[in-house]
Amino acid sequence: MDVRRYAPSPRAVDWGLFASVAVLLTTGVATMFTGTPSTAWVVDLHAIAGVVLVCLLPVKLWRVRRRVAPDRLTGRRLFSLLLAVDAAAALATGVWWIFGGSLDLGPWGLFHLHVGLGLLVPPLLLAHLRYRFHSPSSVTRRGRRDAIRYAGLVTAGALVWRLQGQVNDALDTAGADRRYTGSREEGSDAGNRFPVTSWVADDPDPVDAGDWRLTVTGRVESERTYTLDDVPTGTSEDAVLDCTSGWYSGHEWRGVGVGALLDAADVDDAARWVQFRSVTGYRWSLPLEAARGALLATHVDGERLSHGHGFPLRLVAPGRRGFQWVKWVEEVRVTRRRELGEWLAIFVSGL
Ligand SMILES: Nc1nc2c(c(=O)[nH]1)N[C@H]1C(S)=C(S)[C@@H](COP(=O)(O)O)O[C@H]1N2
Ligand SMILES: [Mo]
Oxidoreductase molybdopterin-binding domain spans which residues (predicted)? Predict the structure, then answer.
């Protein structure tokens, strides 16, 4: 059997590669917001596009194999080779993760490596396309056949994705158990003994409980200030902290409901967003209704939060990925519009 018979036409392969990378980038970035089971399809789509790319990349590399012979290697081709190596490495690290692999790269791990390699593919691909671009004329000529092949490929990708769980079970791959987000469990129900993750460089000195105040400000009728002893801590909630770097941890969090804080301050009719601000400048907003359902926690599984986990107060935002769970909160600011600067702040607040 000659498997090349089943390959789409060369131009269709090129467009398929482009489409796969576009889907992988979009869904990869979108996993930042997959906090509830209803968004699991984003991760599924990411995996299926990955399988499609695993099938297409060898077809492409086989076709161009002679162009990268050492005596024909130009600077541009070297660059395209770099793209191929990076794409293959991004795929390999993704597959390795699925099968339970891990890597110790100091503060980073296998998942970070996958994200880094993956994010490098689109810029390399765009640069490659700048000088390798062909018109898609032959796609239309073989359009139907190619469409059928692609339908088959995507279906096969979905099947492979469905079956890999069974393969993992059969192989008994330790550590391959994942949540639908792709994250693996670490230190659930064990109080403060779960990973401390600060995005980029946030690493403040421990907060002095005596000096610390929580203020509720912005679009409210009466601003409020609380000392740590004043913060009512009678509300508990089970919620999963799921970091975008690939781990999750489920706990019982205790503290004050944000809804109660907002009611005490009497929110304006014009208010739409609630921003949670850390002593470090790190900050994130939730839509008013979502914020009402969130918790500002002082305790985890009955223990006082440790400094690393945000003592004295951290946001618990059920159904949202970990980067939104602001630590060391000192201000709850009610606003009409969302502050766009917070997108920058989550990356640079620690610098
Ligand atoms: N102020 C502040 N809050 C933060 C972060 C940070 O860097 N600074 N990191 C976020 C990220 S990316 C995650 S996953 C969680 C991690 O919480 P943990 O360190 O308690 O596990 O906190 C979030 N809250
Ligand atoms: Mo995170």
Answer: 207-343
Tell me: do 204 and 155 sit in the same domain: no
Q: What angle do CA 223, 225, 227 make, to 5 degrees?
A: 170
Asked which of 148, 182, 216 is the last residue of a domain, the reply is 182
- Residue from 34, 240, 243 to probe ligand 1 pocket by mutation (most atoms less than 8 Å from CB): 243
The pTM (predicted TM-score) of the whole model is 0.92
pLDDT digits (tens, 9 = 90+) for 19-58: 999 999 999 999 999 999 999 999 999 999 999 999 999 9
Q: Does 243 share its domain with 298?
A: yes
Region of residue 266 (phi > 0: left; psi between -120 and 50: alpha; otherwise: beta): left
Q: How many domains does the chain have?
A: 2
Residue 319's domain comprises 185-348
Closest residue to atom 23 of ligand 1, CA basis: 323
CB-CB contact of 316 with 255 (8 Å): yes
The atom of ligand 1 lying closest to the CA of 197 is 19
38 to each of 44, 125, 157, 214, how far by Cα in Å? 12, 32, 21, 34
How many Cα atoms are found within 13 Å in the side-chain-facing hemisphere of 53? 27
Ligand nearest to the CA of 187: 1
Q: Residues 58-92: pLDDT tens digits?
A: 999 999 998 888 888 888 888 899 999 999 999 99
Which is the closest atom of ligand 1 to the Cα of 198?
7
